[in-house]
Design a protein that fits this description.
By secondary structure, the protein is an alpha+beta fold. The chain is built from 3 helices and 5 strands, in the order αββββαβα.
Length: 111
C-alpha cells in the first residue's frame, strides 16, 4: 500500500473512532469531515450546552508534502500518540499547533 493511502486510512480510522464517542453532557455531537482529495481531516463538536451554542474544532489534520500536520488537537490522549501507536513514524508527524521554536525540542518533525 502506498504511504499516502496508508496515512489517509490510519487518520480516517482514528478520527472515526473519536467521532463515535458519546458526550456525557449537553446535547453535543461530533461531526467528521474528510476531504481526501485535498488531504484535510476535521473533527468538529456541534450542539448545545446550557443553552449556549457549541461549534468548535476538536481535531484538524492535514497531509502536506507527505507528512501529517496536526493543526489542532483537543483530545486528552493526543492524536500524535494515536498515530504513532498505529505505526506512523514520529519524523512524519508535525505538531503544527506548536511554534517551530518549540517543535525542535519534541521527538516529532519540525517541518
Amino acid at each position: 500500500m502506498d504511504t499516502l493511502d496508508n496515512y489517509r486510512r490510519i487518520i480516517q480510522k482514528i478520527l472515526t473512532e473519536y467521532s463515535q464517542l458519546p458526550y456525557a453532557y449537553g446535547e453535543l455531537e461530533r461531526q467528521l469531515i474528510i476531504d481526501q482529495t485535498a488531504n484535510h481531516y476535521l473533527l468538529l463538536t456541534l450542539g448545545w450546552e446550557n443553552n449556549q451554542r457549541v461549534h468548535g474544532c476538536l481535531v484538524h489534520i492535514d497531509i502536506i508534502n507527505d507528512k501529517i500536520w496536526i493543526q489542532r488537537d483537543g483530545t486528552e490522549y493526543g492524536i500524535a500518540n494515536k498515530l504513532v501507536n498505529a505505526g506512523i513514524p514520529k519524523n512524519q508527524i508535525v505538531l503544527a499547533f506548536q511554534s517551530a521554536d518549540i517543535r525542535q525540542y519534541t521527538e516529532f518533525a519540525v517541518t
